[in-house]
Every structure is written in C-alpha cells, then in structure tokens.
Design brief:
Tailspike Protein, Chain, Pectate Lyase C-like, 32-stranded parallel sheet, ten-stranded parallel sheet, mainly beta
C-alpha cells in the first residue's frame, strides 16, 4: 500500500522573521492564469471561502480544494505585500483511493455522462457492462488465466461463462485473436456475438464429436463478423440450431466444418447475408422444416473439400421440407456435388414449397447447379429467375438444372458451357408438372431441354444456341414450345432440333425457328400440333414423320426448307392439312399402310411418265393408280 500525505484541519501561513501572517490573505487562481477560482471550508463543498481568503489571528484558514481543479496560490501579508506565488497546486490523494479504483468495484467509483442534451450520469461500471468481452473471463471459467486470444489455451469454459453471464441477453465481444474451443458453446436468447477484425473461433484439433455453437428454442440471435474455422476432419456441423426464431448471420465466415457450416431444423426467419460458407465437409447451409428463411449475397465455394478431408456430397445450400425460402445474389462454385438442392423424400408428408431463387451465379458445381428433386409429390410452387450458370465441365447428374415436382417457373435464366460442347442437358424436366421456361437460354450443350414423363410444360422465347444432337426431347404430354430459336452447333449428320417420340399426350410446337439441323422436327404417330414454325439451313428436312397414322396430327402455316420440306422413306411419311398422306418418290409406294386418297408425287418427273399416283384401295401398300403421264 502506498502512503498518502496527512491532511490538517487548518492551514497556517507564515513569513520568515515575521511568523504567522495574522490577517494576511491567500488568493486562489486557476493554474497558469489570473482567473480567480473557488476553494471551500468543508469537504462537502457546501461553504465557499472568500477569495482572497483572510487569515485569522493565528495566520490560519480552512482550505479544501476542488479535486478537478489545479490552482495557483498567491500569499500576501496584512498590508497586501506579496510573500510568494506558487502555481500548479492540487489536493492530496484521498487515503485508499488508488486501491479502491484498482479493486474489482473500482469502475463503480468513476462517473460517466454522455455528451448531449438529456444525457444522465452513470458509473463507468454500468457503462462498460453494456458489452461483455470474452477476455473478461478466466479460460477455465472459474479463475486464473483469462480467455486466451493466442489460441494456446482451451477457452471453451471461459467463453461459455461469458455467454451464461448474459442470461437476459446482451452483446458478447471477441477482441482480435484466435479462441480455441473443444466443446459446443450453448447460446442464450437475445444474444449478439460481435467479432473484431482478426477474431476467430477455432475448433481444437482432433475434435470430431462436438459442434462449435449450439442453440435450441432460442430467439433473437445475431452473429456479426463472426469467423469460425473447423479442423477440417469429418465430424459435426459448426453451427447447430433447432427451433430457433429470428436469427441473423451477417458478414460471417465459416469454413472447414466437419459437416455443415450452418445446420438449422424447424427454425423461422433465419437470415444469412454477406457470408462466406465455403470448404466445409458437406454443405454450406442445411435447412430443414424451415419457414421464411433468407440467404442473400453469400458465397458457397468448394464445399465437400476442406483441405484436410474430402467428401462426395459438397453442396452450397440444401433445403428440405421448408416453406417460403428466399435465395438471392448468392454465388455457388466448385461444390463437389450440387450448388443448390431442394428436395423431398419418399416418406415425406410435409410440403417443400414457395422457394424463390433470384439473381444467383453458378459455376462448375460437379453434380449439377440447381436440383429440384421430388420423391413424395410435396415439392411445388418454386421460382428461379435471373440466374447465370457457367460451366467448363459436364455435370455428373447429366443436367445443369434439374426440375421435378409441380409449378416450378424459370425466368430469364441462362446456361452456358465453355470449351467443347457439353455432353449433357441444360434444362432437364423429369416427372414434372406445370413447368415454365420463359426467356431462358442454353449455349453449347448436346441438348438444350428434355421433358421426360413431364406434363403441362411451357417453353417460350427460349434460345438454344450452338446446340448439338437434339435441342429438345419429350416423352411427356401438354408440352408447348413457342417463339423459340434453336441454332445447331454440332457436327453430327443426323442432329434433330425437336424429337417427339413416345409422348404420353398431345404436344404443341408454335412459331419456332430451327437453324442448321439435319431435321427440324421429328415425330411419330402421336398427337402433335405444329404451326408457324420455320426451318432454315437444314441438312435434310424441316419435318420428318415416322409412322402410318396421321389422324392426330395438326399442321399448318409452317415454312420448311424448300429442298426437302417433308420427308418420306421406307419408314417415314408425312401428311397434308387434309389429313391425307402426301409424299414423293420415283414410283408408287410398295410398302407401309395407306388410306384411300393418299398421294405420291413423282420425284423424278419426265415426259411420258406418271406425274403422280393416288391410292384407290386402302391396304399395305394398297392399290395405286397413275394420275396420268406428263
């Protein structure tokens, strides 16, 4: 303990050879000035001294100083002659003050008032406790060395003690540094975790059976500028939330988790924004049974690859049995399974509906970029808009965008393959119903669109640019492709723009352009409406028909290539708008089944030879009669 100077009830002033300055004066000024300032007759500063102070018959006076003021003293005798002047005088330190301020309750002895009208006085202790720092607590949660920002000590218990101290909520601050944890930190409601630049939570090496952050049935959680780094080994998720409400992840980075960066089940109004959730063992986000959750302007790169271990199931976002999920402005690249997947399982009874994906960018996600997968008929009412997909590789799933379920609508979404033509499909609808592709495009793929076992699909204003083999295939029904442009980009001698085989019902092709294909449209004996289409630069024909029954075909207003507008071979023939077969050949047909009124024009007309033949008796090939020689 440091000693302090003793205080006297009264101060006596004297002069050499004179003794006490009876009736002398002491004038007090602000240090370094001639501005008078007050002293006091009591500690409580209730009674002010006169200034100057007139000394009594013993040359004495009561003298208490303002602790916030530094003084200048000027002493004079009774005649007013100055005896001395001393500047920069302050009061003695009260006994025990230093120890009191250094003690645990010292901040309660220091006042604070904010600038501005209406501010009220409070103590520094009250002010500082608005925010709790993890380094305010012992690393072991009891005593001794504080939570360690160097990462050497395990700080799990100390950080948990800090969280628990905020049982009613508050702000938990992480100063710059690395904080090692080896067990889950259990969160409380109304908690905000704020990380300074350079602050990071790190999973201890070798820990694979513990989460890092965990919360159940908590409300109003905020994670701001949080950085979490797992140890990269297969294990558990970094953040695990169940039945939580109103959760915000803002500008966070979570990487190298043993499973998911963020896993949440039965949570509502979770918002993840401006976050980097990359290089986790499985997913960036796994959402289950959620409602009203949002993912905005986030980065999902190379999930499935931690740098320590590799899985085959890396995904950016995975959505299961959720309603009203919103994904916007996110980037998905290099995830080693899917970029985004929304799905149901066979036993599901809960809906997965109302998801909106908007203005996202996808690149080289190994299995596929967007997958809407439906096993239980619970997937419905989703929209995909304004997305860009670029790929340098072929998706192992066989398609960049896969759509199942009901009522999925894709608008202004574009898929591009660089380098060689992709071997897969850009847009795959399989066992889907009520699907629309509006204003979309596919560039440099073997197949632009496919509609296997799908119903009620609309493709409008679609551009299939540099498409090889087949632009569109369907075995579905109610498929309507209109106002679209397909440009051939392959080298195959038999590539087809639209193939309509084994369809389950009637399909419609209206107002489309087919440029540079071997064949524009190739159909079988099926219900098809073909109106106002145009084929140009065809290698073979505009419309090719295989089969014998034309009663279900509606066709008109088309503009096929002039060289071979319709094609008939030993297995193929076409039909006129009068539901009668019309073909051309060097002789009357000798195979296939024909109806009365079918007609065959001579493809090598010459003087003295028939100009055409007409079928007068139905059969195989039936009876054909010349319509006269030229």
């Amino acid at each position: 303990m440091t000693a302090v100077i003793a205080t006297s009830p009264k101060f006596q002033f004297s002069a050499p050879g004179v003794g006490p300055l009876i009736n002398g004066t002491l004038t007090t000024y602000v240090a370094g000035t001639t501005t008078p300032t007050t002293t006091w007759q009591d500690r409580a500063q209730a009674t002010a001294n006169t200034n100057p102070i007139v000394l009594d018959g013993n040359g004495e006076c009561l003298l208490w100083l303002d602790p916030l003021v530094t003084y200048k003293f000027v002493l004079a005798n009774a005649e007013g002659t100055q005896q001395w002047s001393v500047d920069n005088i302050s009061g003695a330190e009260p006994a025990g003050l230093r120890e009191a301020l250094a003690a645990s309750g010292g901040s309660a002895l220091v006042g604070f008032i904010q600038a501005g009208t209406g501010a009220v006085s409070r103590t520094m202790q009250d002010k500082d406790r608005e925010i709790v720092s993890v380094t305010d607590f012992a690393a072991n949660g009891v005593s001794g060395a504080r939570v360690d920002p160097t990462g050497v000590l395990d700080s799990t218990l100390g950080i948990q003690a800090a969280i628990s101290s905020l049982s009613s909520g508050g702000i938990l601050y992480f100063p710059p540094g690395t904080y090692t944890v080896s067990a889950a930190l259990n969160l409380v409601s109304n908690l905000t975790m704020e990380f300074a630049g350079g602050a990071k939570l790190k999973h201890a090496a070798g820990i694979t059976t513990e989460y890092i952050l965990r919360a159940a049935t908590k409300d109003n959680l905020v994670f701001r500028d949080m950085v979490i780094e797992g140890n990269g080994a297969f294990g558990l998720s970094a953040v695990y939330l169940t039945s939580c409400n109103n959760v915000l992840f803002d500008n966070c980075t979570i990487t190298k988790s043993g499973s998911m960066a963020i896993y949440h089940d039965t949570c509502t109004f979770v918002k993840v924004q401006n976050c980097d959730l990359s290089n986790n063992y499985f997913y960036g986000v796994d959402e289950r049974n959620g409602t009203g959750n949002k993912y905005i302007d986030n980065r999902f790169f190379q999930n499935g690859i931690t740098g320590v271990a590799t899985s085959t199931g890396g995904r950016g976002i995975n959505i299961w049995k959720s309603i009203d999920t919103y994904v916007a402005g996110c980037r998905f690249a290099g995830n080693n399974e899917y970029g985004f997947r929304l799905y149901s399982e066979a036993a599901d009874t809960a809906d997965n509906r109302g998801c909106r994906i908007s203005d996202c960018y996808f690149r080289d996600n190994v299995g596929g970029d967007i997958v809407v997968y439906n096993e239980s008929d619970q997937v419905s009412r989703h929209t995909i808009s304004g997305c860009i997909i670029e790929t340098t590789t072929n998706a192992t799933l066989g398609a960049q965008i896969t759509l199942q379920g009901d009522n999925t609508h894709v608008v202004n979404t574009h898929v591009y393959k660089s380098g060689t033509i992709g071997t897969g499909t850009a847009f795959l609808c399989f066992e889907a119903n009520q699907i629309s592709l509006i204003g979309c495009s596919a560039t440099n793929f073997s197949e632009a669109c496919s509609f296997g076992s799908s119903t009620n699909v609309v493709v409008d204003s679609f551009l299939g640019d540099t498409v090889a083999v087949v632009s569109l295939t369907t075995t579905g029904s109610g498929i309507r492709v209109k106002n679209s442009h397909f440009i051939h980009g392959g080298v195959g001698a038999s590539d087809v723009a639209i193939t309509n085989f084994n369809a389950a019902g009637k399909n419609y092709y209206e107002g489309n352009i087919f440029d540079g294909f071997h064949t524009g449209i190739y159909i079988a004996d099926e219900a098809v409406a073909i109106f106002r289409n145009t084929s140009i630069n065809s290698g073979f024909t505009g419309l090719r028909i295989s089969g014998n029954d034309f009663s279900l075909l509606e066709c008109g207003g088309n503009s096929w290539d002039s060289t071979t507008p319709w094609e008939l071979s030993a297995l193929d023939k076409t039909v006129s708008v009068y539901d009668k077969a019309v073909t051309s050949y060097v002789a009357a047909p000798v195979s296939l089944s024909w109806a009365v009124g079918d007609r065959c024009y001579n493809s090598a007309p010459a003087v003295g030879f028939p100009k055409s033949w007409v079928c007068t008796v139905a059969g195989t090939p039936g009876t054909w009669v010349s319509e006269g020689d030229l």
